[in-house]
Every structure is written in structure tokens, then in C-alpha cells.
Amino acid sequence: MRKGNRILALLAAALTACGGTSQVEDPEPLRSLRPAVVRVENQSWADFNIYVFRNQARQRLGRSTANTTQSFRIPADVMTGQPRITIGADPIGRQVTGISREISVQPGDTVFLVIPPA
User: Which CATH superfamily is domain 34-115 in?
Assistant: First the structure.
């Protein structure tokens, strides 16, 4: 074997040995680090307070202003265990509250809520 070919063969073997294998991280563990989110599309002319209910306890997420789309984080303490929650929308200045049915939510999930025009 010629000297030049021998050097190329050794270099190729060295590069192959150094290459190793690449491992792709499982994206599922990273999902548990992301918060669950409620995305509210408020098509109404009224502002609404947005709540999350779990085990009869109500926690305010924030205010959805009229004709906007906003996202609200569901607090980590609500997400413990196997969370089954309901979402509430309370129009500011009115005595009516709309409540969703009970849903199961996991970390990293996005719950969509549409408030139609009145």
C-alpha cells in the first residue's frame, strides 16, 4: 500500500472511531417542564376574569380583555397528580359565570377557550 493511501486509511479509521453515536434526547421529559396554558380568544366586547377550578377550589388566572387572544399559565400547584380541572370565565361587572366541563390536563398542554360575542 502506498504511503499516501495508508495515511488516508488511518485518518478515516481515526475519524470513524472519534465519531461515536449521537443520541437524540427524548422530548417527553422536557414536556413535563413546560407549564400548561389556557389560551383564551375573547370575541366579546366585555372583559372577563379567567379562573381555573380544581377540587372545588377556584384560582384566578388573569383578565382577558375584549377582542383579544391571550395565554394564561396554569399554576404548578394545580397541576399536581392527575389534574382534572374546569375553566371559568366571569364577565366583569355582570353576575353570570360560564364554566367549562371537567377536562384532564397535563404539563405542556394548551387548553383553548373561545368566548363568543354577546
Answer: Domain of unknown function DUF5300 (2.60.40.2890)
